[in-house]
Amino acid sequence: MTPRRSSRPSSTSTELNLTPTSNGGVKHPRRADKNPKRTASQLEKASMPKSNYAKTEIGVEKSPSNVRRSLQMQVSENAVHSNGHKREEVQAEKGYCNDTKNYMYDESLGKQGHSTVCHQQPNGNGNTRTPKKGACREPDALRTPKSPRKKANNLSNQIQKWNPKDSSQILAVKAALHLSAVPTTVICREEELKKVLEFCKMCIEKKKVGSMYVCGCPGTGKSLLLEKVKFLSIEWAKEVGMPPPTSVVVNCTSLTNTSDIFSKILEQCQGKKKCSVNSSPFQELKSFLCEKKQSSAKKMTLLIIDEMDYLISKDQAVLYDLFRLPTFPNSHCMLIGISNAIDLTDRFLPKLQSLNCKPLVMTFRAYSKDQILKILQQRLMGLPCQIFQPEALELCARKVAAASGDMRKVLHVCRGAVEMLEAELTSGIHELDNISYEKSMTNGLNLPPERLTKQEINRVRIDHMARALAKTFRSAVVDTIQSLPRHQQIVLCSAVKFFRRRKKDATLGELNAAYLDFCKTTSMYPLTGPEFSSMCRVLSDQALLNLGQSREDRLRRVTLRVDEGDVNFALQGIRFFRNCLQ
């Protein structure tokens, strides 16, 4: 076989020596140098055996093919170090982009530095081309390590991760869910806040007296809103250049006697704990609030009486005297009463209209499911991580909204769920390797058929929330109501609906009429009158109803002895009663 010579003329006169192979071919030796401008050191490296340059100057092993490619690249002049030492040459692998920074270590100096290398690659026709910028990536071994500031930030982020075994983080969560934690803004009560604040501004600006009665179910934000109104009215008066009102807040649950309310108000207004012997506390308070002053120096007094239904007595004299305070001549008193009783002014104080002191009435509705979720998210927003599963919060919001809409119960249930998670992790009941899909489904978790992750174990799940809800609402009364026959449950449901929109007691005949209406709307066959009377006696024996004494059964007085929320919670899971209780 005739040896084949290169068709392209080389820059030297050296001929190629061909070596025959075992299969009849020839083996080409290293090709002649195509670049006459290479230095002597580069030519010497090209003629070295493969084993002598298995490692480059930067300590990264290269294959012989990569070395041959790198020898074909044109390398720029070596950069000179600031202390006069010359850096070593850096031979880049194929694929390095323009202006790539190679990280290297100088053994003679014991320092680290960077060298900027411009790589050019030969194309097919013998010319050189520069690779596109960004076409390659700097290898991990040559990257610059992170700065100490970045390491510190990463460390701080790791410290802020949720760890339920940390007592300080558990205390922070419980503090955010406590009743004493007052939020900066009152949400889901914007309309009520606007109306009460406009009433206070009008009284302060026009030096006009007035009274307002705020009522609603427990836990609907009445006291919280009035605290915000007190603060905003003082700030508004300062902004407009008017004298800020004197705020007096009294909670009637702390009173031993109903007449002590006037002494409490005087104590906050004047700082006196004892009144004079010659006059009663009411007369002293009346003279203080009706003192003659110039219009410019007249300073309004804002009286906020919380839990006003504790002042109910036989003759209601204390309540009448309180609502008469703004009507006296030269009075500078604004009265706002708070109570859970919706019909307090109509039922217990019917003479207010004739005395010309009937207050404005504002009713707070119970929180809905969406409002409860929004308030919970506002309270948990300040925490650095997510503690509750979204499904767990939604379960709590749905259950409490269907039962009573009491936000205080929502916070109590959420705190109980956190305590259950804390006790579970402390006692080591659930281990990551022992929780299976079957166990998670029995606990109410909607998870894929896989083992729970560590993140799911460390968060408050649906099973924690369900147990906390059962602990809060589940009682002997609830179990008794759920075990009753259907018609006895209908009697209780009829009593709840009847007493919700009317007075708290009724005759047995009126309750029977409500029972018949309920059966008619639900297409149920009603029981007869004697059977209805016997059912009410059974409910009275089980301490669910209270029956009075009378010669005729229809005239016996009936009252509900259980909480309305217990009846709603016991019957809300039954589709038959779900729509009727709303």
Describe the structure concisely.
With 582 residues, this protein is α/β, with parallel strands linked by helices. The chain has helices spanning 40-46, 64-71, 148-159, 167-176, 190-206, 222-239, 260-270, 281-289, 317-324, 344-348, 369-380, 390-403, 407-427, 437-442, 454-457, 462-473, 476-482, 486-501, 508-521, 529-541, 564-571, 575-578; strands at residues 19-20, 26-27, 100-106, 111-117, 121-122, 128-129, 210-216, 246-251, 301-306, 333-339, 360-364, 505-507, 545-547, 557-560. The chain contains 22 helices and 14 strands.
Write the layout of secondary structure elements.
Layout: E1 19-20, E2 26-27, H1 40-46, H2 64-71, E3 100-106, E4 111-117, E5 121-122, E6 128-129, H3 148-159, H4 167-176, H5 190-206, E7 210-216, H6 222-239, E8 246-251, H7 260-270, H8 281-289, E9 301-306, H9 317-324, E10 333-339, H10 344-348, E11 360-364, H11 369-380, H12 390-403, H13 407-427, H14 437-442, H15 454-457, H16 462-473, H17 476-482, H18 486-501, E12 505-507, H19 508-521, H20 529-541, E13 545-547, E14 557-560, H21 564-571, H22 575-578
Parallel strand pairs: 7-10, 7-11, 8-9, 9-10
Antiparallel strand pairs: 1-2, 3-4, 5-6, 12-14, 13-14
Helix pairs in contact: 5-6, 7-8, 11-12, 12-13, 12-16, 12-21, 13-16, 17-21, 18-19, 18-21
Number of E-state strands:
14
Biggest β-sheet, characterized?
A: 5 strands, parallel
Mean pLDDT: 75
Give the helix tally. 22
Q: Which percent band covers the strand fraction?
A: 5-15%
First CA to last CA: what distance? 103 Å
Helix percent band: 40-55%
**SSE-based structural type:** alpha/beta
What multimeric state do the chains show? Answer: single chain
Report the C-alpha radius of gyration, rounded.
43 Å
Q: Which descriptor suits the 3D outline? A: flat
Low-confidence stretches: 6-16, 50-65, 74-119, 131-146, 148-159, 430-450
Strand order of the largest sheet: 8-9-10-7-11
